[in-house]
Automatic annotation (TrEMBL):
InterPro entries: ABC_BtuC-like, ABC_TroCD. Its main location: membrane. GO terms for cellular component: ATP-binding cassette (ABC) transporter complex. This is Manganese/zinc/iron transport system permease protein. It comes from Natribacillus halophilus.
Length: 293
């Protein structure tokens, strides 16, 4: 497989896994929690390194996943105590991320863990970090991790599709008919944490946030069917990955940064040209109403 193939596959896996999770985050008005998780996992990564003195991917994955889950727990605790959800996210996000930055600056100056790496990622180096698992050689570690997480996400969404649907659109009804709304919330937060952690080291926080929010928000403008929203969000994530890579190669720019930019461009196009929620459609509808009146 070529160098370009592995980069595109890695970015596409990020786009699909983040895209399908992002749909539920958008509908539940929890989009900015993904921003918090994608940054606070830095604390988990550096904590795992300080404990094990190893840069092994799985130890950092476990450390980051734990901190990601703790982020959601702390946010929910503050929100339950009466703090507004956006304020709770902001407090937990800045506090845990700041601790991670301090630990990196104090104890990780001689390794490749740094703030710039955590923000922008190092997707260009993905093809060189290969592992041999299940007797298969030459596949990048990031591809394995993202692929496994994507399979887990898809299985959980398939098994609990109806439960997620009801609890997302009508949590009161879900509680009334006996669905474990709290368990479903933390299950989604766990899926978000695993997805963000698996994507974080490969592509950095900026692209993780972009892929968790922009494809889902774009799909939301184009369809009202939840199943189709998942499909469109995954497609837009892959489209942003491919277009961002080739434009970055043409301009000699940041690959992750350009992919995030293209995710925003795709959203902007839907925001303007959506046949139901776009600016042009709304303006035409307003003019028609005025004409009829």
């Amino acid at each position: 497989m070529s160098y370009t193939f592995w980069i595109l596959l890695t970015a596409s896996l990020v786009g699909v896994s983040c895209g399908i999770i992002g749909v539920l985050l958008i509908l539940r008005k929890l989009a900015m929690l993904s921003d918090a998780i994608s940054h606070t996992v830095l604390l988990g990564i550096i904590s795992a390194f300080l404990i094990t003195q190893s840069l092994d991917g799985w130890t950092m994955f476990i450390g980051a996943a734990i901190v990601g889950l703790l982020t959601t727990v702390f946010v929910q605790m503050l929100h339950s105590a009466g703090v507004q959800s956006d304020a709770a996210i902001g407090i937990v996000f800045t506090f845990l991320f700041a601790i991670g930055v301090i630990l990196v600056s104090m104890y990780a100056g001689n390794v490749h863990i740094d703030v710039e790496h955590s923000i922008m990622g190092d997707i260009a180096f993905i093809p060189w970090e290969t592992v041999n698992w299940f007797g298969i050689e030459g596949i990048p570690q990031a591809v394995w991790m993202l692929g496994i997480v994507l399979v887990i996400d898809v299985i959980l969404l398939f098994l609990f599709y109806k439960e997620f649907k009801v609890s997302t659109f009508d949590p009161e009804l879900a509680a009334a008919i006996g669905l474990p709304v709290g368990v479903l919330h933390y299950l989604l937060m766990g899926m978000t944490s695993l997805t963000a952690v698996a994507s974080f080291d490969a592509v950095g926080a900026i692209l993780v946030v972009a892929m968790l929010i922009a494809p889902g928000a774009t799909a939301y403008l184009l369809t009202e069917r939840l199943s189709m929203m998942f499909v469109l969000s995954a497609v837009f994530g892959v489209l942003a990955a491919f277009s961002g890579y080739y434009i970055a190669a043409w301009l000699d720019a940041s690959i992750a940064g350009m992919m995030a930019t293209m995710a925003g461009v795709i959203f902007l196009l839907a925001f303007v040209f959506s046949p139901t929620h776009g600016l042009i459609a709304k303006r035409l509808l307003q003019n028609r109403i005025k004409y009829e009146v």
